[in-house]
Design goal:
This protein has 1 helix and 22 strands. The protein is mainly β. The chain has one domain. Strands 4, 5, 11, 14, 15, 16, 17, 18, 19, 20, 21 and 22 form a 12-stranded mixed beta sheet that branches. Strands 1, 2, 3, 6, 7, 10, 12 and 13 form an 8-stranded mixed beta sheet that branches. A two-stranded antiparallel ribbon has the order 8-9. The longest helix has 4 residues.
Length: 278
């Protein structure tokens, strides 16, 4: 099974945006290697999913580091998810069993998250910050203007793209069909508050040597962060196990943002110098 390049049409032009990297053991990675921005930040924070919209401030952060070079999210079969890339130390210490760098444990791929996407990215500024191409790219998944859905935005006022990756169990492969644009399936989402119960068309990617598979949804949206820089992206891995904090039920989450917000300047780089990251 080949890696897949996600290509988006925007204002009549095609842009290489992201890559889904398929590993031999069934794990996979999501990267945004085609953005011009090289400097970012990565942080771990608490997420309250009972809120319709939420912002991340300094008080919610558990850890934060600077990144010089692009990170990618890797989702392992076991449920371990990590940021990795040039200059980033990551993985699990074989001696202590502790996480090195920035990572957490989520649902394993044979028991995938059902309440929403497993991971995703927010992408903005295509015309100024991404690579323009033609259609002669191998192993691409191409989204044209008529393929997009809209969330909190319209055709006239969107400023970003949301790329969401869902993991589905093997039994749902019977819903997969094939067409001129590749494999796809229709799926109903009740958790989307904009259109509860709406049915969406997802592009499908099969994993290597593993029965679960991926469904890809791309929507146009409007986000405050996308209005603060001409181009950039945000990587969103899944969250960890529920815990109580300040009387609320929350989950630890992670995020990488390129370029970093102003208040993240002066951070130390994400290199492994201690076992005490968690």
């Amino acid at each position: 099974m080949h890696n897949k390049t996600i290509v988006l049409q925007d204002n009549g032009e095609l842009y290489k945006i992201s890559k889904v990297i398929l590993h031999r053991d069934g794990s996979f990675s999501l990267a945004v290697p085609y953005c011009k921005e090289e400097h970012g930040c990565v942080f771990k924070h608490y997420v309250d999913y009972s809120l319709y919209k939420f912002t991340v401030d300094k008080d919610q952060m558990i850890q934060k580091f600077a990144l010089d070079g692009k990170a990618k999210i890797t989702m392992h079969v076991s449920g371990f998810v990590q940021f990795s890339g040039k200059g980033i130390t990551s993985g699990i210490d074989k001696t202590t069993g502790k996480i090195k760098g920035m990572g957490l444990f989520s649902s394993p791929l044979d028991k995938p998250i059902e309440s929403g996407p497993t991971l995703g990215a927010m992408i903005w500024g295509l015309s100024s910050g991404y690579t323009k191409i033609d259609e002669n790219v191998k192993n691409l998944i191409l989204y044209r203007d008529e393929d997009y859905y809209y969330r909190s935005a319209s055709k006239e006022d969107y400023n970003c793209y949301l790329l969401e990756i869902f993991v589905f169990p093997e039994i749902m492969k019977k819903q997969v069909r094939g067409g001129s644009s590749g494999l796809y399936m229709y799926h109903q989402f009740f958790q989307y508050r904009e259109k509860p119960g709406a049915i969406f068309k997802l592009r499908v990617i099969y994993l290597n040597n593993f029965p679960s598979f991926l469904g890809i949804l791309v929507t146009r949206s409007d986000a405050e962060i996308a209005a603060k820089s001409p181009y950039g992206f945000q990587l969103n891995p899944p969250s960890g196990a529920e815990e109580y904090r300040s009387g609320r039920l929350v989950r630890p989450g992670m995020m990488a943002v390129y370029p970093p917000p102003p208040f993240m300047d002066g951070l130390i780089p994400l290199t492994y110098k201690s076992n005490d990251f968690l």
